[in-house]
Amino acid sequence: MFFFTFLMIKKVSVCGVWSFFSIFVVKNKAARVQVTSHTPFKKMKTTLLLVGKTTDKHISACIDDYTGRIVHYMPFDIQTIPELKNTKNLSIAQQKEREGELILRQILESDHVVLLDEHGIERRSIDFASWLEKKSMSTRRMVFVIGGAYGFSPEVYQRANEKISLSQMTFSHQMVRLVFVEQVYRACTIIKGEPYHHE
Description:
- By secondary structure, the protein is of the alpha/beta class.
- The protein folds into two domains: about 1-35, no CATH class; about 40-190, Alpha/beta knot.
- It is about 50% helix and about 15% strand.
- It is built from seven helices and five strands, in the order ααβαβαβαβαβα.
- It has helices at about 1-10, 15-35, 55-70, 90-105, 125-135, 155-160, 175-190, and strands spanning about 45-50, 75-80, 110-120, 140-145, 160-165.
- The protein has a five-stranded parallel β-sheet with strand order 2-1-4-3-5.
- Helix 3 (about 55-70) runs parallel beside helix 7 (about 175-190).
- The radius of gyration is 20 Å and the shape is globular.
């Protein structure tokens, strides 16, 4: 009733006040999403694990924007593993091995680990949303991992539960982060039946 009353006020308000109530209503709507018993992923926590910082400020800003949207639907955070230093004297295999050790330190035994990998399964956005919703019913924490420039070590592949691919095309490691968080947000809106995604 409280929410409906503010919607009515919004319709009859002048432009300046209209904007104020518009923001107020959106925030309250987001809060309602967080507390409702029908919220998807109510029990599942989701982490995106990255190797190296997102250095492009424009991409970083967009990632922050989508992350802020996602948390209205599910517990979601991004953890960043620092890039290795002094890698000139390391072979590619050694770099992957050391990065793999750092990745595995962040993963719990009970985590469901999903690697973003070019050889992973490709899904349409609707199928990804359905898969994510199904996993949320039986998973305590889902960890998606975007590796370094050379991919993952054999040990990380061995620990992984699944692999997914966003596309057959090649993205930079900076860009793939943005594409992925947008797809997570899109999946949330699909599950909630909101008008963000169009077929």
